[in-house]
Design goal:
661 residues; alpha/beta; Leucine-rich repeat, LRR (right-handed beta-alpha superhelix); Phosphorylase Kinase, domain 1; Transferase(Phosphotransferase), domain 1; 21 strands; 14% strand; globular; signal
Amino acid sequence: MASSSSTSPVTLFLVFASTVFFCLVSPARSGDVEALLRLKSLIDPSDSISWRGTDLCSWEGVRECMNGRVSKLVLEYLNLTGSLEEKTLNQLDQLRVLSFKANSLSGSIPDLSGLVNLKSVFLNDNNFSGEFPESLTSLHRLKTIVLAGNRLSGRIPSSLLRLSRLYTLNVEDNLFTGSIPPLNQTSLRYFNVSNNQLSGQIPPTRALKQFDESSFTGNVALCGDQIRSPCGISPAPSAKPTPIPKSKKNKAKLIGIIAGSVAGGVLIFVLLLTLLICCWRRKRRSKTPTEDRKGKGIAEAQGATSAETERGIESKDRGFSWERGEEGAVGTLVFLGTSDSGETVVRYTMEDLLKASAETLGRGTLGSTYKAVMESGFIVTVKRLKNARYPRMEEFKRHVEILGQLRHPNLVPLRAYFQAKEERLLVYDYFPNGSLFTLIHGTRASGSGKPLHWTSCLKIAEDLASALLYIHQNPGLTHGNLKSSNVLLGPDFESCLTDYGLSTLHDPDSAEETSAVSLFYKAPECRDPRKASTQPADVYSFGVLLLELLTGRTPFQDLVQEYGSDISRWVRAVREEETESGEEPTSSGNEASEEKLQALLSIATVCVTIQPENRPVMREVLKMVRDARAEAPFSSNSSEHSPGRWSDTVQSLPREDQVSI
């Protein structure tokens, strides 16, 4: 009896704890399970989707989960039928990506206003009818809307203007009528309303002016500069021909014969003149082939003086061009990698790239980097390599194709490459939000900036460590040039590595010297340009970059040699000096701040160990960073949200500023 009564409190506690746990966790997760099973019953009568077991995150089509909730649902090419239900879908309120692409779903698209975290929706190539789902325009995080290939009708709502982050809008091959709303989002990069029944003038907004005729074709009643059809010009009314009196017919016949003879003579003269001009041009071109092929764009931008660059004078509105091969043929633009279903990939031709305007973004030991704006408005980043002969063509091709297969949320994708006899180009996605260097130092060339809050440091550190680990999982592959200017900020201000794996393209016998800043990011054993980069050297560079985040100081000197075991003391002194005015928030508690700062310092210190064999591998570094983040008192419930004052930090960033060396 006594024994029974002594265990009673323990039993009660366990029951209470279990009840609390299931009340807090189970409803959300079981709600997703219930919603998915209900969805399957509505649209999968042929049982194409196999959803069994209790772990919904392993179910087919559930591409990603976050805290046990579904964040990415992709059900494509499954011959799904039936209609979508508003209540069921809105239960999945943690969705970031939703795709029912290429099925046979019908009916109207339901109200999706409950999906407050949605970023991308793909409902293309189905049988949806009804009006444009205006509920989408209330989702402030939404960036990609693809509704192409359905039977949607009515007007395209002007409330789309509320979507400040809109990046893609594709509603081609529907039955939409009325005018195109005056979209003015600077984020808009992909736009297609072709093959509808739209009418009126295409709004002359800056956002829409960047798209060419292919975005609007198949709408016969549209007019505007983009389709070379002026508005306000109606065809002249046809008039009935005045009958010619019989008495004047012979005279008119004679005039007609004379007029026909004159017109024929003029036509023959014009043809002969055209032929002579063509022959003259061909002769002139054969005399000065190099002169005629001389380009403006990258070639001209390459020749700009350093003084012009320092003054910020860029080579704008110029076209790309380069020397042709011996047989007069330009090399091939080769696209790389494969895209997953949640990614919008734009294809373009070599001709599109040749016609693009070029703006210099940066220059370095490997070459120059340009922002290339095509006539369609699509923007890419092009790196023009200085040495087009090293390594040999086959080796270059093999290495670049390996880099082109890499796909990670924190890597800037390498999309294509071009090589000819004397030219090598690498084509990347364009990131308009600038670089980590700009985030830390602003526009100051001195490299002296403000230290970042420890929550921002942890977020950036996790992004970069995750990307480096992904690179290192490929045997022998390294970043080789990790520094803050080679970290770009993505659409959600996530940190993304660029210029990874390019160190092997540098000729070790080249006389080009590494800049002082780049030199001290490098591990001591790799500062000799003849030494190949290693994965432990990447870990060292990561440690230096972490110190830059914590202090706001660019490594113009060897920090380890300068401060040795006093690195911790130096970092604290710099942060205290910079945060006397109250920049370092204490709302999360001084003890917590001190704990996180110490964790970051420990990670940085162990990474910059002089002996390579004593440095941790990237997997261990990532675990240390994640352990530190997991204990941090963040208010956000998602790693995609900006921790602490991260959003405050990026608000002051200058846009369209991208440092890529």
